[in-house]
Structure formats: C-alpha cells, structure tokens
C-alpha cells in the first residue's frame, strides 16, 4: 500500500464545515464572522509520550485529545485538525485501529481532519488543531487576580499512578490499575467546560505536566502566587475512591505527589472570582464535568501547599522529581 492509498483509506473523509479538506495542496477553513481562530500543536513520540505497546485506537484518541485539551483551555470550539504522521512501515492493523480511535473522538467533537503529511520514519504523531472563539473572549493565562479561587476539573493523579505501575515503582490493585490506565491512555478533553467558562474564568490552562507546574504558568503570566490545599487535590485522585484503595497501601506522600505534580491529566485548572462560585458550579453542571475548588490566588509570589490544618508543607512538589 502506497502513501496516497493509505491517506485515502484511513484519513480521508467528506468535508462538512471546512471549505476544502484532504486532497489538495491546502485545506480551506472559514471561521464564522467575528470569531478568532485558536491554533495549537502537540507532538507525540514513541517512547517519550507513549509506550510502544499501547493499543493503537487509544493512541489515536489520545493524540487528538491532548490537542483538544489546549482548545478547551482557551475556551475555543474545535473546528478542524491536521495530522502529520511518520511511521516505520505500513501496518494496516495499526492504521485501522489508530484512525478509528482518532476519528471517533474527532466526530464526538465535530472536529474535521482536513489535511496532513505522511512519511516513513520513527513513529511520531503531530497534530495541529484549529478552533474558534469570539474575538477577545479566549481564556488566557494572564487574568488571575489576588483573591480569585483556584479550581480544577475532573480527577488528578490517576494517569501518573498508572505510569508508575507500568514502570514498576509501585503496584496497584487490579481494579485501580485498570481505571488509572484508562485515564492515562484515553484522557477526556474538557471542551464543553472550557466553552462554558468563557466570561467566568479569569485565567485557565490545561494540566499536562502536573498541577503545580502548569498552575505556575498562570501565576507567572498573572504576576501572582497561590495557596493550594494538598488534601483537596489528593481527594481528586479517582482511583483512591475505589473500594480497592483500602488495600492499595499507597503512601500519603505518593498520593499527594501524583495529584499535585503527576502529569498527563488533561484537566482544566482555572481561576475565577470568589463571587463567581455559583456561575462556576453552573458551568460545570451544564457541561457535565465535576469541578473542585482547591486553592486561592494570593499576592505573594510562589506556591504554598497547605494541609487540612492550614500548615504549609515543605516545598517538595515544585520541580517535582519524586520518581526520577
Ligand atoms: P503535498 O506534498 O502536495 O503537500 P501530500 O502528498 O503530502 O501533499 O498529501 C496529499 C494530500 O493528503 C494533502 O491534501 C494532505 O493534506 C493530505 N494528507 C497527507 N497526509 C495526511 C494525513 N496523515 N492525514 C490527513 N491528510 C493527509
Ligand atoms: Mg506534503
């Protein structure tokens, strides 16, 4: 099977919203009047961002999910994406699974594959997404103000628990591992929440490299600091709430580290005025996404992680490298 047959079979579909899709030298997109185009790229490299043994359908899903997560963080509605793919050989079973996972998630979000590039090389997947957002309404990193609440969507830390189980640095009960692995391999981009937070969130980011690290990007851009409730963050580990957790024997330190600095969560961390709590809850409800309030923006720079008693914990989580 040659390059063009492969593109035709696995990556070409009739266009819907785009003016022109796969098959010409460029795709053509027409954002609606008054809208700005939100553009973001993310690359996934075998061995660095995913394990070579991962199910191809899950990999297809994740490759697009991490990109949609960036649109979500900006409050942009997905429109289209391109796929630049290099792979060592044509493996039709792999391609079928990959395109099924990829295009399945694309359809869920009405995001069309409009073009790309396909070459021989190490397995490497680079997606660029295009979304639209009313001019001036995009959620940015720079709007957090002293006194704002800090919120995080969904769950935290599960993906890192799964990664560490794969690495063999900890062992999880089977039900916990199964769940955590799904969070690692098939993250859910919080697109509906991002849209619902337009005009409510003062700043937002998606959590890909760990909560504290990503929150720090908001703090630097907004020139503020934060106080974070370590136990509230730790309670966001979904696998912890499973009955199997009783016998998991995971140390408090490990759980805190996974929640605060685990990575690969693809949740939204955002700030909003304390007077906007009802509006945030309504946005969460309308988008069927749980949100948890885990801290406060303060004028003093840096991050202070506190326990349930308000005691400041040693700053072990910034530049976290617990697992090496
Ligand atoms: P060119 O070299 O003229 O840019 P290519 O031969 O690379 O075009 O690709 C032919 C067409 O197929 C183009 O429209 C391109 O956008 C599309 N395409 C190539 N690879 C992919 C892919 N992996 N997914 C979707 N479309 C692709
Ligand atoms: Mg090309």
TrEMBL record:
Substrate binds at residues 49, 264, 320. The keyword Chaperone does not apply. Its EC number is 2.7.4.16. It catalyses: thiamine phosphate + ATP = thiamine diphosphate + ADP. Keywords: ATP-binding, Kinase, Magnesium, Metal-binding, Nucleotide-binding, Thiamine biosynthesis, Transferase. Mg(2+) 4 binds at residues 25, 40, 70. InterPro entries: PurM-like_C_dom, PurM-like_C_sf, PurM-like_N, PurM-like_N_sf, ThiL-like. Mg(2+) 5 binds at residue 209. Transmembrane segments: none annotated. Pfam families: AIRS (PF00586), AIRS_C (PF02769). Pathway: Cofactor biosynthesis; thiamine diphosphate biosynthesis; thiamine diphosphate from thiamine phosphate: step 1/1. ATP binds at residues 116-117, 141, 208. GO terms for molecular function: thiamine-phosphate kinase activity. Residues 146-305 form the PurM-like C-terminal domain. Mg(2+) 1 binds at residues 41-42, 117. It comes from the Bacteria. Mg(2+) 2 binds at residues 42, 70. Residues 23-133 form the PurM-like N-terminal domain. Reaction mechanism of ThiL seems to utilize a direct, inline transfer of the gamma-phosphate of ATP to TMP rather than a phosphorylated enzyme intermediate. Belongs to the thiamine-monophosphate kinase family. PANTHER family: THIAMINE-MONOPHOSPHATE KINASE. This is Thiamine-monophosphate kinase. It comes from Variovorax humicola. The gene is thiL.
């Amino acid at each position: 099977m040659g390059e063009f047959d492969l593109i035709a079979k696995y990556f070409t579909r009739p266009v819907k919203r785009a003016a022109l899709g796969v098959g010409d030298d460029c795709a053509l997109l027409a954002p609606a009047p008054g809208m700005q185009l939100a553009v973001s790229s993310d690359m996934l490299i075998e061995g660095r961002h995913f394990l070579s043994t991962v199910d191809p359908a899950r990999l297809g899903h994740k490759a697009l999910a991490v990109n949609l997560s960036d649109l979500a963080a900006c409050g942009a509605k997905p429109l289209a994406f391109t796929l630049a793919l290099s792979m060592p050989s044509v493996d039709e079973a792999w391609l079928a699974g990959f395109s099924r996972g990829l295009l399945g998630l694309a359809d869920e979000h009405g995001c069309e594959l409009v073009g790309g590039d396909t070459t021989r090389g190490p397995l490497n997947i680079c997606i660029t997404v295009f979304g639209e957002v009313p001019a001036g309404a995009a959620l940015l990193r720079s709007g957090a103000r002293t006194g704002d609440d800090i919120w995080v969507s969904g769950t935290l830390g599960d993906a890192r628990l799964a990664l560490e189980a794969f690495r063999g640095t900890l062992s999880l009960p089977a039900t916990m591992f199964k769940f955590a692995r799904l969070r690692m391999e098939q993250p859910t981009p919080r697109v509906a929440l991002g849209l619902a937070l337009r005009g409510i969130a003062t700043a937002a980011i998606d959590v890909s490299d760990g909560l504290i690290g990503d929150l720090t990007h908001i703090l630097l851009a907004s020139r503020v600091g934060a106080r974070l409730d370590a136990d509230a963050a730790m309670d966001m580990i979904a696998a912890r709430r499973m009955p199997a957790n009783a016998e998991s024997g995971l140390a408090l330190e490990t759980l805190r580290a996974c929640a605060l600095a685990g990575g690969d969560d693809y949740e939204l961390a955002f700030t909003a005025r304390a007077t906007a709590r009802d509006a945030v809850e309504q946005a969460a409800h309308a988008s069927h996404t749980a949100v948890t309030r885990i801290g406060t923006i303060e004028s003093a720079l840096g991050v202070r992680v506190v326990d349930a008693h308000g005691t400041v914990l040693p700053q072990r989580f910034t530049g976290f490298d617990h697992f090496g």
